[in-house]
Amino acid sequence: ETGLPMTTLERNRLLTHFAVHISPIFYLMLPFYLIWPDPVVLQIMQPLIVASGLVPLLLLARHFRLARGWQIIFAFIYAFHPGLIGSSLYDLHENCFLAPLLLWVLYWLERKNWIGIIAFSLLILAIKEDSALYLATIGLYFLFDRSRRKFGLILLPLSLVYFAVALNILATFGTGPMVGRFNNLIADPELGLLSIPITIMKN
After folding, report:
1. Longest dimension (CA), the chain
2. DSSP 8-state symbol, 90
3. Do 55 and 107 form a contact (C-beta atoms < 8 A)?
4. What are phi and psi of 83, to 5 degrees?
5. Which residues contact 167 (CB under 8 A, 6 or more apart)?
6. pTM of this prediction?
């Protein structure tokens, strides 16, 4: 109604969504909401956005010259995977953009298309602060591929820098980063998230 990311859905009070998560990706839903200003349109869009991941998935399958039967199997697994469709059945989540956009980044990386890589990487960073970790993981993977190491050398550090900056913004201006979901990986509470790599190496 105002163009501002104000919500009463989180923390049981009126506040900016950006105090909880840095998710400008929601603005991609706004034009459709303006046409049909009803929460129902958001519920309909959520599974449609997730389903749009079938496009880059099938493009990747064709890029790797997979047989038609395998393409159908992978599409079926994607379409009915509980982890992908489950969150579309309730509430509104910015994570609905994650799988499709990650698949697009992987597709453009395979095609070595810098414009696609940059555009969809920026869209992934717009989903939520911790979506940068997915990009960092992809960057780490490509560090071990000699022919595409340059992608990893750029993607990995930039993702980690964005993640650190986004967490600092939330800690300074918002309600703080939601790191509770990582508690089982934080061996040293004093280090916080920096403890995760140490935990991974030790265990």
Report:
1. 53
2. S
3. no
4. -65, -25
5. 129, 177, 193
6. 0.85
pLDDT tens series, the chain, 203 aa: 788 888 887 778 888 888 888 899 999 999 999 999 998 999 999 999 999 999 999 999 999 999 999 999 999 999 999 988 887 887 888 999 999 999 999 999 999 898 999 999 999 999 998 899 899 999 998 888 888 888 889 999 999 999 889 888 888 887 766 666 677 777 777 777 677 777 777 87
Q: Which run of H or E residues covers position 154?
A: helix 149-173
Tokens 């395998």 sit at which residue?
Answer: 70
Can you read off the two tokens belonging to residue 103?
């698949």
Whole-angstrom distance, CA of residue 7 vs CA of residue 174: 14
The span from the CA of 142 to the CA of 61, in Å, is: 19
| CB hemisphere CA count around 182 (13 angstroms) | 18
Structure tokens at 25: 């990706």
Nearest to 96 by CA among 72, 131, 71, 122: 131
